Amino acid sequence: MIEIEIRDINNNIVGKKEVPEIVFNNPASESVVHTAVVAYMANQRQGTHSTKTRAEVSGGGKKPWRQKHTGRARHGSIRSPLWRKGGIVFGPKPRDYYIQLPKQMKDTALFKALTMKYRDNEILLLDNLSLNRIKTKDMVEILKNLQLAEKSVLIALAEKDEKVLLSARNIPSVGVVRAEDLNAYHVAMFDKVIFTVAGLDKLLRIKGVS
Question: Which of 18, 123, 156, 195 could, after both became Cys, cross-link 179 (CB 3.0–4.6 A)?
Fold first, then answer.
């Protein structure tokens, strides 16, 4: 087990929590994180880009002029890719970019990403994170107290919290996610990761390592 300090929103140490080594001391290769990140980004692609082939562009069922004795090059259709507004050769067509990864591989990538953050002192565990009102200024003040004002920060909560979510929404460098939705991409894209104790507990429980 690994012990992590628990802090309050004023950055005071209020206790410690034991966490299984598999989460913050995962021996997997960093390449598994790269694979998971590439898969996540590929799966966000809609794949709706499309061009028309010569069979799909309009007009030109007729040969534009006779084959010989015109002094011009031979052509069979104005739909030819050689013509302006003709068909596109080997252009993009709608496709599915989805990459399927095994659940165990996704979990391993997440734990390895968290391990890398932990070793770089980029994991912060809070006893609680709640706001009395929806106010960006309050969220900024908390980040200043935690000495994270100049960092990009990902906040992982046990449940969706509208006050926290809306208060952080206008801060470009801050993201909020439910712990159960956390993945290696999220962890890799931010400088710091903040867990609430409840959020970390839920993550461990869902991943079956609590």
Answer: 156
